[in-house]
Please model this.
Amino acid sequence: MFNSLGKACSLSSLPLRYCLWIGMLFLLTACEGPTSVQRGYRGTGMLQIYKPSVLAANAAIHDIPEPEPVDPPEPNGPKLKDLYENIQVLNDLSPLEFSRVMAANGHAWT
Model:
């Protein structure tokens, strides 16, 4: 390397070395390293690697959806124990509430 006067200069000058070290440290600390989580037994290499910034950006995708609207129960309507013979639990529900519970156990939102 040559300076503006045409003389050869070396990287042995102390301030230049300090600037290079500080620059390398800055570059290494400015990078976002991935985070890993162990998902299997030790030694199997089953890791999940992700970047926290990408995970935070995709957080809205993984929100729980809004619940479906619910009709008010009928207080004087028939009960399940009067309509069905083989239901052993949830006997005090109305058929409308029972249908809502059964639909909620399905995979409608996934």
Remarks:
- The longest strand covers residues 35-38.
